[in-house]
Design a protein that fits this description.
Length: 490
């Protein structure tokens, strides 16, 4: 009897069953299932409850993981060394490109298209620089004679809105700007350029290499300028103004290329104004600054001067002839008695004169010293006599007049070149610095900057070193070639 089970059948008669067991031959089997004990039933119910608890805990943990970590990625199965046949279907599934999963990455901000650039070359062919395609370049001819004798353009660059981005022209000989109190200046950006410079640089003011520079003066506000220059400024000092000009190659004038020729500390006509130096530094990150800088540093300068040819000139009186450059001129005076040689800038640098009456000597004591820096033998009529007579020659002499000058008003050395058959003095000093030759019936003649040294047409130097450096210039070489080509007919 199973007390845990409700059986609908009647309880069997035990005596009748016993009787059949011993009297009947048929086999007997008890059809009632085995009865479990009460202890086994309790253990079975405990196991069932434990399994239900574990299952509930597992479901709860899965929900928590899914909530906090998102979708779970299955780890790859460990590699197997067994040979596996892959069906065509499986192969197609494995080799197909995975489907991209949309992400929440923000869309990047589109960048501006790069600006196209073009090149500009001025009318003379000397200057070339780059600028954005949308900018315009205005070039106008400037009247007057320039250092180079042929470069005379004023160039203005404007952006799409008509704002001036830069100007280029021959640098003027600007006077000094005086201010009551110089202000600090700073170079915020600079780039050294490879623009070649003239072999003979300015002697009064040494100049450094050409460079792009962004400089500011800190005054009541911060004033700035972007330009090319070659003036080296000492960091940490003050200035009244910042000049923007630089020395170009041979046969190219001093040039200014930038937003202004000169920036004054009071900010008058300043191209750039900032509230602070930090604001000026921030301006360097703008596209406008980057475009102007690229335009300025792209400048190329070259000499396109037409090669000079030489012509021959004969004086109106027929007594003398000489060669001269075709871009120079010769002006005749007094029916050929005087012939003035004028360079391309309109300066009279030589005069050929005949029938000259010698001036009386300048009586000074002691006589100042002189130095012969160059001489070349020549052939022209000469009958000079006396202790000061020398062989006919081209000669370049420098006279020390420092004790006659007042400080700041005149150079201490005066020089003259031309022909000579007479020394200025036998002892290295002279009180009679005249440049005349004796050898024609009509009287003395000369071919020099002036027959009597001390005239305004003479050369002036601040040192002997400067006078020696002058002999390396094209001007000196041209004058010497003209003088040594002289032929006297008499």
């Amino acid at each position: 009897m199973d007390p845990m089970k409700s059986d609908p059948h009647p309880v069997p008669d035990g005596e009748e069953a016993l009787r059949r067991m011993f009297s009947e031959p048929a086999a007997f089997t008890d059809t009632i299932p085995p009865v479990a004990s009460l202890d086994a039933a309790r253990r079975r119910r405990a196991r069932l409850a434990g399994l239900l608890t574990i299952a509930a805990a597992a479901v709860t943990a899965g929900v928590l993981v899914a909530t906090n970590l998102g979708a779970l990625t299955a780890l790859p199965e460990p590699a197997s060394t067994a040979s596996v046949e892959i069906s065509d279907e499986a192969t197609a599934i494995q080799t197909s490109a995975p489907t991209a999963t949309p992400s929440s990455t923000p869309t990047p901000t589109p960048t501006a298209a790069p600006v196209a650039w073009t090149k500009f070359t001025d009318a003379s062919g000397q200057a070339t620089f780059e600028h954005p395609v949308g900018w315009t370049v205005q070039e106008t001819s400037v009247e007057g004679r320039f250092e180079s004798g042929y470069w005379g353009s004023s160039i203005v660059v404007l952006n799409e809105a008509g704002k001036v981005m830069g100007k280029m022209q021959e640098a003027p000989h600007a006077g000094g700007y005086m201010c009551p109190e110089p202000k600090p200046y700073y170079t915020l950006d600079s780039v050294v350029l490879d623009i070649p410079q003239k072999a003979a640089k300015l002697k009064e003011i040494p100049r450094g290499p050409s460079q792009f520079a962004f400089r500011v003066i800190q005054s009541d506000k911060v004033y700035g300028t972007m330009a090319l220059n070659d003036r080296e400024l000492v960091p940490g000092t003050t200035a009244c103004f910042l000049s923007n000009s630089f020395l170009g190659p041979d046969d190219v004038p001093f040039v200014t290329f930038g937003d202004t020729q000169s920036l004054q500390q009071d900010g008058e006509n300043a191209p750039l104004t900032f509230a602070s130096v930090a604001e000026a530094e921030a301006y360097m990150q703008t596209q406008e600054y980057k475009d102007i800088k690229r335009m300025l540093i792209s400048l190329e300068l070259r000499s396109v001067k037409t090669p000079v040819t030489w012509k021959n000139y004969t004086s109106a009186n027929g007594l003398g002839s000489f060669d001269y450059p075709d871009n120079w001129t010769v002006a005749s005076r007094e029916n050929g008695r005087y012939s003035d040689v004028v360079d391309e800038q309109g300066r009279t640098l030589l005069t050929l004169g005949f029938g000259q009456t010698r001036n009386s000597p300048n009586l000074v004591s002691p006589c100042p010293p002189f130095t012969v820096l160059d001489s070349t033998p020549m052939s022209f009529p000469s009958n000079r006599q006396g202790p000061r007579a020398i062989a006919p020659q081209f000669i370049f002499r420098v006279w020390d007049v420092s004790r006659f000058t007042e400080s700041g008003r005149s150079a201490p050395f005066t020089a003259n070149l031309g022909i000579a058959d007479e020394s200025w003095g036998v002892d290295g000093t002279t009180c009679d610095p005249q440049n005349v030759v004796s050898g024609l019936p009509s009287g003395e003649y000369f071919f020099a900057q002036n027959y009597n040294t001390g005239a305004t047409s003479d050369l002036m130097f601040y040192s002997m070193e400067e006078a020696r450096a002058y002999m390396e210039t094209e001007e000196f070489k041209t004058l010497k070639r003209i003088v040594t080509s002289l032929k006297i007919n008499g």
